C-alpha cells in the first residue's frame, strides 16, 4: 500500500510531458521570474522517482565513507546529529549520475539565463531524527571562492520535508548584492572574513520593512533553487524521521574565481595557484554541465557552417 508521500511524488512525476525536457516544464518563465525576484523557488518534481532512488543510495554510501572534509555541526548533547560533507563528486558514482544526468544542468541555465553552467561543488546535509540544532540565518556566497551574481544552488531532499523542517528564505535578500559576515553554525565564529570587514546579519533584521519569509513543504523529487546571496536558515529535525538533502552548487558564465587569503568552506587546496583571481572557472574541477557535450559540439558545428558527411 502506497504512503501519501509516494502518491504525491507519483502524481507530480506523472504530470511531466515527455514531449518537452523535464527542465523546461519545471522551470517555466513564471518560475524564472520568481527566482530572480525572490532569490529562491521550489522546483516541483525536478528529479524522477528513480533518480531519487539513485541519490539515496549515494547518500548512504557517503555516510558510510565520509571524506576528510566531513563535520558534525551539532553539539554532543544534541539527541540527533547534524552531519555535513563537502566535495564528494566525482568519487561517488550516484552523485555523478545526479549532477550530470538529471535536469539540474538545464534548470540552472534557465534560472540564470546563462549559456554555460559549470559545476562548482556538492554538499551533503543530514539531520538525523530528533536533531535540535537549527541552521542559523546565513548566506552561502561569503564562504566560497566565488565572485559575481551568476550562480544557483539546488537543495534536493530525498525524504519528505514538512514545513517546520524546511529551508526558510528572506525574499529578495540577494538583490542588493550585499554580503554579510559568515560565521560557523555551531559556535558563531567569524573564521573567514575578519571581524568588522562585512556587516552583520543583525543589521538586515533591524531594517524596515523586514523582508517576507518564504518556506515550502517538499516531497522527494522536489528541489529548492536559490541564489548564493539569499539569506536563509532551517529548522532541526523535530520529528521521528531523518532529513537527508544533497546540494549542488553551480555557476554561470560571468562568475569568477575569488582567491581568498583564507581557507574557504569548502576548501580548494587542490586548486592551488592554477586559477588566477578574477579568472573564469575554466578548470577540470569545475566541469561544464550545460550545454551537454553533444549539444555543445552541434552548436559549434552549426555556427561554423559545418555539415554532416553522412
Describe this entry's structure for a reader.
The chain has helices spanning 4-14, 22-26, 29-38, 49-64, 93-100, 104-112, 201-206, 293-303; strands spanning 40-43, 71-72, 82-86, 117-127, 135-138, 146-147, 151-157, 167-170, 213-215, 223-226, 232-234, 243-252, 256-257, 288-290. It starts with a helix and ends in a 7-residue tail after the last helix. Strands 1, 2, 3, 4, 7, 10, 12 and 14 form an 8-stranded antiparallel sheet that branches. Helix content is 25%, strand content 21%. The chain contains 8 helices and 14 strands. Helix 4 packs antiparallel against helix 5 (93-100). The model is unreliable at 300-310 (pLDDT under 50). With 310 residues, it is of the alpha+beta class.
Helices, strands, pairings?
Layout: H1 4-14, H2 22-26, H3 29-38, E1 40-43, H4 49-64, E2 71-72, E3 82-86, H5 93-100, H6 104-112, E4 117-127, E5 135-138, E6 146-147, E7 151-157, E8 167-170, H7 201-206, E9 213-215, E10 223-226, E11 232-234, E12 243-252, E13 256-257, E14 288-290, H8 293-303
Antiparallel strand pairs: 1-10, 2-3, 3-4, 4-12, 4-14, 5-11, 6-13, 7-10, 7-12, 8-9, 8-11
Helix pairs in contact: 4-5
User: Could you describe the largest sheet, including whether it forms a barrel?
Assistant: 8 strands, antiparallel
If you average the pLDDT, what whole number results? 90
Helix content class: 10-25%
Strand content: 15-25%
End-to-end Cα distance: 52 Å
The strand count comes to: 14
| Helix and strand element order | HHHEHEEHHEEEEEHEEEEEEH
> How many H/I helical runs?
8
Low-confidence stretches: 300-310
Radius of gyration: 19 Å
The coarse silhouette is globular
Structural class: alpha+beta
Amino acid at each position: 500500500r502506497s504512503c501519501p508521500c509516494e502518491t504525491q511524488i507519483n502524481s507530480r512525476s506523472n504530470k511531466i510531458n515527455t514531449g518537452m525536457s523535464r527542465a523546461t516544464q519545471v522551470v517555466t518563465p513564471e518560475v524564472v521570474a520568481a527566482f530572480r525576484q525572490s532569490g529562491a523557488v521550489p522546483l516541483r518534481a525536478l528529479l524522477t522517482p528513480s533518480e531519487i532512488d539513485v541519490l539515496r543510495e549515494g547518500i548512504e554510501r557517503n555516510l558510510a565513507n565520509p571524506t576528510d572534509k566531513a563535520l558534525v555541526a551539532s553539539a554532543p548533547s544534541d539527541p540527533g546529529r547534524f552531519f555535513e560533507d563537502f566535495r564528494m563528486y566525482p568519487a561517488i558514482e550516484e552523485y555523478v549520475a545526479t549532477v550530470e544526468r538529471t535536469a539540474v544542468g538545464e534548470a540552472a541555465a534557465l534560472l540564470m539565463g546563462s549559456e554555460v553552467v559549470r559545476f562548482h561543488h556538492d554538499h551533503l546535509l543530514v539531520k538525523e531524527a530528533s536533531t535540535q540544532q537549527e541552521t542559523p540565518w546565513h548566506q552561502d556566497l561569503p564562504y566560497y571562492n566565488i565572485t559575481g551574481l551568476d550562480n544557483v544552488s539546488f537543495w534536493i531532499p530525498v525524504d519528505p520535508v514538512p514545513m517546520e523542517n524546511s529551508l526558510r528564505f528572506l525574499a529578495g535578500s540577494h538583490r542588493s548584492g550585499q554580503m554579510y559576515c559568515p560565521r560557523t553554525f555551531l559556535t558563531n565564529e567569524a573564521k573567514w572574513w575578519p571581524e568588522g570587514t562585512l556587516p552583520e546579519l543583525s543589521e538586515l533584521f533591524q531594517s524596515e520593512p523586514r523582508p517576507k519569509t518564504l518556506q515550502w513543504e517538499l516531497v522527494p523529487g522536489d528541489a529548492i533553487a536559490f541564489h548564493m546571496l539569499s539569506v536563509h536558515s532551517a529548522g532541526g529535525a523535530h520529528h521521528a524521521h531523518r532529513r537527508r538533502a544533497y546540494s549542488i552548487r553551480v555557476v554561470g558564465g560571468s562568475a569568477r574565481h575569488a582567491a581568498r587569503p583564507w581557507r574557504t568552506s569548502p576548501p580548494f587546496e587542490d586548486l592551488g595557484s592554477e586559477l588566477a583571481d578574477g579568472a573564469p572557472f575554466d578548470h577540470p574541477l569545475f566541469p561544464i554541465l550545460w550545454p551537454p557535450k553533444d549539444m555543445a559540439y552541434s552548436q559549434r558545428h552549426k555556427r561554423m557552417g559545418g555539415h554532416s558527411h553522412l
